[in-house]
Amino acid sequence: MSLLLLVRRHLRTAAGPTVALAVIAMLAATVTSAVPRAVAALHAEQLAHATAQASAIARDVIATSPGVPGYGAGYVADDGPVLGATGAGSVDPPQPDLDGYRDGLRALAAAQPEPLARVLGEPDLLVSGERVDVRPVEGNDVAAPRIVLRAGATARDQVELVEGRWPEPTPVVADRDAMLPGTDGVVDAEPVPLEVAMSTASAAELGWTLGSVHPTDDPLLPPAELVGTWEPRDASADYWVHGPLAVTPEVVLDPNVGKIATAAVFADPGTLGAWVTGPTTRIWFPVDTSAVTSADAPALLAQLRGLTATTSTPVEGDAVTLEPTSGLVDVLERVLGQRQGVDAVVAVLAVGPLGALVAVLVLAAGLVLDRRRSALALVRARGASGVWARGVVAVEGLVVGLPAAVAGTALGLVVVPGPVSPAQLVAALGCGLAPAVALGAVATSRGTRARRADLDVVPARRRRHRLLVEAAVALAAGLTAVLALDRGVVAGADGTGPAVDPLVVAAPLLVSVTAALVVLRLVPPVVRGVERVLARRADLVPFLGAARVRRDAAGGLLPALALVLAVGVAASSTVLAATVRDGVTREAWGAVGADVRVAGPLMDDETVSTLAGVAGVAAVASVVDLGRVQVEDAGGTTTVTVYATDAEALAAVQADVPGAPERSAALVAPDGGTLPVVAAGDLADGPLRWPGGQEVAVLERVDRLPGFPPATAALLVDATTAAARLDVGAGSSRLALLGLDDGATAADRARVEREVAAVEPNAVVDDPVAGERALLSSPSAAGLRTAFVLAVVLSALLAAATVVLALVLAAPARRRLLAVLRTLGLPAGAERGIVAWETAPWTAAGLLAGGALGWAVPALVLAVVDLTPLTGGDTAPPLVADPLWLGALALGLVGVVAIGAAVAGRLGRRRDVDQLRAGTD
């Protein structure tokens, strides 16, 4: 019989196990095809998201240089205004070549390497002077009006004129000293007013009208004449972020001066260059990272660091040079840190199912071999070699594996479109060859013979080899774990190293495999002890079940290995998901410190009382900054920032805030002559003493005071106690923490925030729920949640497949046993108990070991992977487990086993007569 003919007959008969092999290969190919592209797309989306969330100031490449560009080599930035002549006469101001300077900026950007060159957008610049006081307009409520003279290369393109015209070049006094009164009190030169244009909002605020002239307080600067008013074409454009004060003026209410309003006004570049002393030029390249791929991010960071570390001359000989800075460096570092955390977590979550998948693949191969055993035994009896028999099943594996891998790869492309890398093709080929390799491995001369495991004598040499392999795995697990823990967390990833540290992947995998091996060693002796105990009982089913587990466990030892790995990954995913979520919540609430935080203007008693009267507000605690004080500690003296508040109100506000002081309410009860405080930040342990000898009693030490301004070291005191006991100033409050009523809904929270904003329209209102939502809505957080869910689902599927395959493998022997027992009077329904006993010990062991791994693996990950970029904090989040989810996982696994046992027990009732004729155990 030819090999191909036998393979063809195999594929046409008992095709179920072969189809299972194909499904496993297709699933593996789909995952290896889709996951790398999905992770790469996730990183690219996170970079674009982080860049879009950042303001133009925190994103663009920016340089601020003294002087006015475009004047060439004859201009020195520090020498003052550009003058065309000397004497008391007026001259036309020379015009700077701003467009030529921008051409130099474009050439500089184009000369950068990729991807930096395509990230840098169209350059622009603005020239600005210092703030200048102008004379108030009679009848206007602005007591101290100020202007900032400004000129830009594209300013005219950014606005629409409402009235008048754009400023034109006007003659300037060549010798500015001629504007000063001489010894005779006479001014030799009267300058022509400097033409300016301003926004309609600024003109209305300052009370300027078209054609009005406004003298300045600078005797060397002419008055300003308003020749045009304008409206911005796009008030939200980044141009106005780089050029503030232009669209709307800055208004400050000073109790001593009154209203102070400062507006930026546009002038002709040449006229500004001739009049303004000490001008500065702001140059910027808009940044667009939408076309940057995940692989480009490390190179972009390195190139950007190189650009910002050098001084460039865009136009040869021009006095204005380029010393750029960019907040994009910080954005990229944060994104790459998030990428490192996501990659490490995904890798850890992937290796566990990979090991379980290999075990399931071998189980499925064993099932195929079980269905082919009689045919292979027949051809071996007719003289076929063992190699030929292996070739038959290997070819069968190739026939089903390669098409399944192609289908899985195509399905992965449908799920996650994108380019296919050579590594992905190699992985797909490996998935296609895996069924053939697994079938060839199990089709040994021993594997083609039916036998009982308990009667199969294992040679001493094989036992020693197994022991050595297990010892080597355990030693490798300990070594990698120790090395990873000894090295600690590697923070500040720049993307120049490997995407995932091999230790981060190897240590959890080896620890998981070691746990599975320990289970394989411990379960048989435990079952043997249970069997001896049950042998004394009258009921048959428990004893018979335990005996069968010892004699011939369903599927052998592979199901235990697969179950431990699958349950361990599912539990690890659940714990890591809860840890990241809790870390995000802690950071969001730690930054705000209350249900609502109000920061900005002065918070006097009347304002605090008004805030407390808002419907839904349960308590208000205002925070008073008492300044910095040097306290004596064990190491000498330490400078601390002292904050005072109503301690009881703060305790009520922060009752449920993570990381908040637990004993803040006790600050109102001084202990003897000491001053009770809560210490935060970098303060040495031991007693503290206030300047002048006042002893300080530290009731509690915390890492930080949630919601308070950041400080290296801080002390929190009760406001009433501080007023009575301390010789400090009254201080001022610009911060209030609000606690809402219990059970406040999202609608209640939004209403309170609107009313608080109405009470303090110029304040910043922070909501921890909004901050938490913003962190969790990022692509990295969303992708990580998807990875956790997929890991749990895949682990559950693998656990179910393991149980089903193991029960199906044991079905023939079970049916023969049950047929005999029924003839001897086995009661109906007892077969379900026997079936349950086949998997119950391994299921219980898998749950226990998997649960332990669900805690150990995340602890190891937290010790070696920096997850702070994912949580938005500065410190690693504590390990958190959600009992409800872990309980649901355990119940799900038990449910899978129960369903499998029920189905297997029902199938065991069939063909009893045939089984009796075939023989018994």
TrEMBL record:
Residues 790-907 form the ABC3 transporter permease C-terminal domain. InterPro entries: ABC3_permease_C (IPR003838). Its main location: membrane. Keywords: Cell membrane, Membrane, Transmembrane, Transmembrane helix. The chain crosses the membrane at residues 344-370, 391-416, 422-443, 467-485, 505-527, 557-578, 787-811, 842-865, 885-907. Signal peptide: none annotated. It is found in: Cell membrane. This is ABC transport system permease protein.
